[in-house]
Amino acid sequence: MSIQSYTGLLLVACCFAQGQKLSVGLVEAEMLEQHLREFPLDNEKRQQRAKELFEKVNCPKIVLVPLGKKDYPSNVVCILPGENTRTILVGAHFDKVRPGEGKIDNATGVVLLSSLMRALQNSPRRHTFMFVAFAEEEVGLLGSAAMVKKGVDGLAGKEWIDSLSAMINIDSVGAGVTAIALSYSDQELANIAFSLARKLEIPVRAVNVDAVGMSDGSNFAKKKVRTVEFHSLDNTNFKVLHSIMDTMDAFRGKEYSEAYRLLAFYLVQLDHYLDR
Q1: For the segment 1-33, what is each residue's pLDDT rounded down to a tens digit?
Q2: Nearest to 267 by CA among 111, 174, 129, 62
Q3: What is the maximum alpha-carbon separation in the chain?
Q4: How far apart are CA 204 and CA 184, in angstroms?
Q5: Measured on CA atoms in the order 143, 147, 153, 154, is the torsion positive or negative?
Q6: What is the rounded CA–CA span in Å between residue 197 and residue 216?
Q7: Pairing state of beta strands 128-134 and 164-170?
Q8: Around 83, how many Cα atoms within 13 Å sit in the side-chain half-sphere?
Q9: Residues contacting 41, CB < 8 A, separation 6+
Q10: Sorting pLDDT into bands at 50, 70 and 90, what band is 69?
Q11: Is 149 helix (H, G, I), strand (E, B) or coil?
Q12: Rounded distance, CA 91 to CA 207, Å?
């Protein structure tokens, strides 16, 4: 693996997909942790912070997708165009429950959205990437349900759903070793992640989280969109969720950085692999 520093990023190259070397530009771990520590507690302010993070990395197009009820915050969408309109959607919900600070569930996911966009921004892309900070996941997956129904950026209905090559959901990473919920995930997409993790020498486990509840990915899976669910939960840490323990004390920086590196390369690999 080769690493080179430039303009606040680490340019990292590794592995091969379809005969091409994969490369990404990674935001430094200290910046990720700073964004996480500063992530607000109020849900409306969390929506605004998600938008600010996209603006900070110069997202080419930011769209707010309302849920249809004036009292609810909107989904925040960053669109990174590719060579075609086939889309890989990467999602993480920004809202939290009242107990705790919502750092693990799910500020960790939202901070990664803008950082992953930045990692891909300077590389050629076949697919359009859509990074979505979902609203109101905790009260019934309302943000993702609205997005599935209404679409975004002029697309709706079957045309919108058919444009999606994959949906990658990030929920509660950074509390331990990265895991994939196989019961919620497309088997082939999960296998690609496991194979890539071995090449990168990043530990990844298969851990189902059915007892914790459904995730935003399930709304897309119901529409036959291929989904994969990344998290970091197991029997040792799942009690952090929805509790006063969901603070920076539950955060594991090394594992969070590994999740970020894996996901950045994973998105590039999917861009090479899907829809060929």
Answers
A1: 333 333 456 666 677 666 667 778 888 899 999
A2: 129
A3: 50
A4: 16
A5: negative
A6: 24
A7: unpaired
A8: 7
A9: 96, 101, 102
A10: confident
A11: helix
A12: 19
Query: Exposure pattern of 182-213 as b/e (b: 16+ CB <10 Å)?
Result: eebbbeebbebbeebbeebebebeebbbeebe
As a whole number of angstroms, the distance between CA 106 and CA 137 comes to 10
CA 274 to each of CA 77, 110, 257: distance values in angstroms, whole numbers, following the listed order: 22, 24, 25
Residue 106 has phi, psi (to 5 degrees) of -150, 40
DSSP state for residue 122 in the 8-state scheme: T
Relative to beta strand 20-27, strand 61-65 is unpaired
* C-alpha span between 242 and 215 (Å, rounded): 14
Q: Residue 21 has what pLDDT?
A: 75
What's the full length of the chain, in residues? 276
Tokens of 261: 């590196």
| CB-based burial label for 124 (10 Å; 0-12, 13-18, 19+) | exposed
Positive or negative torsion for Cα 209, 211, 215, 217: positive
Domains of the chain: 29-273 (3.40.630.10)
**228 in Cβ contact with 189 (< 8 Å):** yes
Dihedral (Cα; 14, 15, 17, 22), 10-degree rounding:
0
Three-class secondary structure of residue 96 per DSSP: coil
**Across residues 65-93, what is the average pLDDT?**
92
- Burial (CB count <10 Å: 0-12, 13-18, 19+), residue 227: buried
Cβ atoms of 251 and 103 within 8 Å: the answer is yes
Q: Examine the pLDDT at 161 and tell me if it is beyond 80.
A: yes
Fill in the DSSP letter of residue 246: -
Strand partners, 130: 79, 89
